[in-house]
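Dear H.,

Thanks for agreeing to be a second pair of eyes. The structure we're designing against is below in token form, covering all 85 positions.
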């Protein structure tokens, strides 16, 4: 089934939704990161990140695990992107 809603309208609605919730994510980021630390560490470990690697973190939210990967990838490149600033 194909959507009849234009992509730019879907994107605008999604951005509005995430912009609404972003302050809550920022407020509770420390708590969430602490709870999810074992998962984040396992994700980074499984990537076997090297200093020359290139990584893309899509829907990066408040930045983890992309920021941790960037700290390891000192001579490579890491790009983090998210729909909501």
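And this is the sequence the design step returned. I haven't edited it by hand at all.
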């Amino acid at each position: 089934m194909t959507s009849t809603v234009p992509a730019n309208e879907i994107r605008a609605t999604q951005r509005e939704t995430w912009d609404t919730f972003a302050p809550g994510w920022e407020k509770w980021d420390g708590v969430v990161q602490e709870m999810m630390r074992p998962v984040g560490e396992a994700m980074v470990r499984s990537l076997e990140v090297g200093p020359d690697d290139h990584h893309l973190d899509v829907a990066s939210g408040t930045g983890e695990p992309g920021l941790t990967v960037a700290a390891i990838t000192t001579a490579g490149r890491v790009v983090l992107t998210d729909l909501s600033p």
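Two observations from my side: The mean pLDDT is 92. Residues 52 and 75 are 5 Å apart (CA to CA).

Warmly,
E.
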